Amino acid sequence: MAVVRLSVFWDRMKQHFGETYAESLAKDYVLAELDGRTIDQALADGESAKRVWEAVCATFDVPQRLR
């Protein structure tokens, strides 16, 4: 996967989960692949959008076209 910009990350999140659920998921769902952090926490800690997106894809059934 190429570099994922933060704007592209959020676009993909909203395409797959819907705007409201994407925001809720990012705030509340803890991902093991992110060392027990939420998406919001990982991004705030400086984790790359690419790594966070890869963790989302590993956790949820994200279609290939959005990977």
UniProtKB/TrEMBL annotation:
The family database entries (InterPro entries) matched by this protein are listed as: DUF3046
Name of the protein described by the UniProt record: DUF3046 domain-containing protein
Q: Which organism is it from?
A: Thermomonospora echinospora
